[in-house]
Amino acid sequence: MSLPPTTSPIRFFHQGRTVEVAGVHPTRSVLDWLREDAHCTGTKEGCNEGDCGACTVVVGELAAAGTPGAVGGLKLQTVNACIQFLPTLHGKALFTVEDLKSGLLNDGGKTHDARRHDKHPVQCLHPVQQAMVDCHGSQCGFCTPGFVMSLWSTYEHHRAAGSVPTRQQLADDLSGNLCRCTGYRPILDAGQRMFDLPPMQLDTQPVVQALTQLQREGSFDYAAARDGRTDHFHAPKTLDDLAVLREQKPQARLLAGSTDIGLWVNKQFRDVGDLIYLGDVAELKTVEARGDSLHIGAGASLEDAWRALAQRAPALTDVWLRFASPPIRHAGTMGGNVANGSPIGDAPPVLMALDAQIVLRRGAQVRRMPLTDFYVDYMKNELAPGEFVQGLEVPLAALQRQVRAYKISKRFDCDISALCAGFALTLDGDTVKEVRLAFGGMAGIVKRAAKAEAALGGQPWTQTSVNAAKQALADDFQPLSDMRASAAYRLQVAQNLIQRLWLETRTADALPA
């Protein structure tokens, strides 16, 4: 494929140097480029849909001031190479299992005989790799590179912070990696042992220098021809540039983490045409308190957005850590999860319960509406042609209420919900002053349970009122049966979650007789 004269090559840091790639289609995955073009075959293809973690790599970018968990000026995050499009790496750094033996890793000039390979005495294993060997953490070995890269990310973050992870933190960090033969105990053992071995850390200075130089190059536009047509990948740098580009090309698809679009390409072989990438628009990635609201930019990662919500409402922590997996949360965005409109999305029920407003923009015009009004029908919303989601605004006062979120799925980690719920409750003594109950998986769209809310509003917070709300829920929803759950199961579980809300928040005076 030829490179059109108006486009730039994809430039990113890989294996100690800045590489340039041109002529590949904008939807070529990082995994395919690694294995077929760069001949770095340590990264494996398993599911090809971001579920199994065999293809886990680490992407680094310059860390903004105050970035939580920054490592030597870098923000290091695991991602799934199988669904990440190669042009999204422009201006970033890519680390794979091959890098664990590169000159970028610094052991302070020491040679540790315990980590030498028997057949290659000059090649030392990284502590992550050596711990996997010592703890028998690999059997068939196919998933091992993915586990190693997830553990390497954990290792770098905790070394930089001067801390050691708990076993539960290790399990959370590895929740996006599946193993089908070794079992997880020896892998978790390796995660603990790697901190007992002589340290070897990433030398971030050359990476930061290279990325700083790449950042000076301005907006990135890439294109490549295939089948007689040229497809474009636009990466605007500012919100205003994005607004202009969106008006000019309303038919182009907006791309953030490719956690959905990557599956369209890999599994459905869909032609997605021109893409407008949101990942370089810094204004879209902010998560901060503004006035009386928490502002979440549409391009903020799911990880950053959920962390900010959970810091203010700790009861949301469990759903945050169960939302997809770390690689998906690092790549996917809160704006994408909301705009996608999936009836089983985990974020919209919580945001609806928190009375969130969605901020929409077209050109210079900005409008706001309650998230409850955004969804029209299954996979349909209020977005007008040329309009895009700019962000979400969550009232800080709502985060002070008794907030709960529940996710029901077949697997505990890394699974799609059969049912999800977000609740916000305000009591005046033992009386329900205000309650918001929002559900996903109960209808063609995420929506609130208006009749169940009415059954509770102004009533004593007792088992009697809870029973009335549970009964009213059957009038709010007529769920469908599908591969994940039957209609009867969904309704029963939704009613049980209202019961659970009461059990978790009742006062002594509200105990049943």
Taking the alpha carbons of the first and last residues, their distance comes to 76 Å
CATH superfamily of the largest domain: Beta-grasp domain
CATH topology name of the largest domain, in short, is Ubiquitin-like (UB roll)
Helix-residue proportion: 25-40%
Largest sheet: 5 strands, mixed
Low-confidence stretches: 1-5, 109-123
Q: Please tell me what the overall shape is.
A: globular
Placed side by side, the strands forming the largest sheet appear as 2-1-5-3-4
What proportion strand?
15-25%
Structural class: alpha+beta
What is the CATH first-level class name of the largest domain?
Alpha Beta
What is the residue-averaged pLDDT?
92
Radius of gyration: 24 Å
Number of DSSP E strands: 22
The CATH architecture term of the largest domain is: Roll
Total of helices: 16
What is the oligomer described by this structure? single chain
As for the number of domains, it is: 4
Write up what this structure looks like.
By secondary structure, the chain is an alpha+beta fold. It has 4 domains: 10-99 and 208-277, Beta-grasp domain (Ubiquitin-like (UB roll)), CATH 3.10.20.30; 105-202, [2Fe-2S]-binding domain (DNA polymerase, domain 1, Orthogonal Bundle); 282-400, Uridine Diphospho-n-acetylenolpyruvylglucosamine Reductase, domain 3 (2-Layer Sandwich); 418-510, CO dehydrogenase flavoprotein, C-terminal domain (Enolase-like, domain 1). 30% of the residues lie in helices and 22% in strands. The chain is built from 16 helices and 22 strands. The chain has a 5-stranded mixed beta sheet with strand order 2-1-5-3-4. Strand 21 and strand 22 (447-448) form a beta hairpin. Helix 2 packs across helix 5, helix 14 runs antiparallel to helix 15 and helix 15 packs antiparallel against helix 16. The longest helix is centred in the last third of the chain and has 19 residues, at 487-505. The radius of gyration is 24 Å and the shape is globular. It starts with 9 loop residues before the first strand and ends in an 8-residue tail after the last helix. Residues 1-5 and 109-123 have low confidence and may be disordered.
